[in-house]
Sequence to fold (318 residues):
Amino acid sequence: MRIAILDDYLNAAKTLADWSQIESEHDVVVFDRHIRDMQDRVKLLRDFDVLCMMRERMDCPRELIEALPALKLICITGQNHRTLDFRAAAERGIVVCRPVRRAIGSHATVELAWGLILALARNLPGETWNMREGGWQSALGVSLEGRTLGLLGLGRLGQRMVPTAKSFGMSVLAWSPNLTDERAEAAGAVRVDKQTLLRECDFLSLHLVLGETTRSIVGRNDLALLKPGAYLVNTARSGLVDTEALMQALEQGRLAGAAIDVFEEEPLPENAAIRRCKNLILTPHIGYSVVEQMRDFYRDTVDNITGYLRGKPINVIV
Fold:
């Protein structure tokens, strides 16, 4: 069988899991660059029996599934895959398996969110650059103590933001479409309406799932409610924020800064306008990309392929 490991940008798959038994009898190919064009995907992947996906780095719509005649197994590395057409896979008789391990790195996105908050508060990218260029301090930072953290979303990851905020001496406000006072209180936050949260927070951090009701949930009018000097951090999904409106707010100085780890098109095109936006920290969707998480992803992928090859598929979704 031919097995494709897709979007392994750092060539990490074979160093983090033992593929030796599979490779002894099958052809395993690593794609360390994103295949952006659909025609290129079909051309490069049409002879592969197995696709090993890294999260949602590459979408897998019906058009692609139906164009790959050899495809028998898809291994995903998340509990779900929003851009994989499961119905199309089922109609083709393609098995889809997911991971089961829960690494200590499963909350790594929260750690990154705090790293970005601190980087914004103390202008770390700018000061680091100044030091490398022979300069010295160029701006005053702000302290987190006494500030207000606003959480859009208080689910598994949003809740993990609260203890750290409290340790910094911050107050925490939260809102999501279905959040209750009881759930917010249990997490250590205060539930307020969306407008109040936007008006009162100093740092806005997004932790919502992207869907029809949450797309552009932070739009132009919402950004206008943020106080001058506020900061926005998005480590969740790009579609939650109106990117054009955010860029305009930053360019006009209505926000002190923002940090973004997620984008509508990934990898972000080299000429993307957002790359030139001032007061903006950009990271290449690294929220979940830690050794612990990736190791478990690839170990589960090896287990799922091995189970399929033995005729006993495990961790099957479809």
In short: The chain is about 35% helix and 15% strand. The first helix runs from residue 13 to 16. The two ends are 20 Å apart (CA to CA).
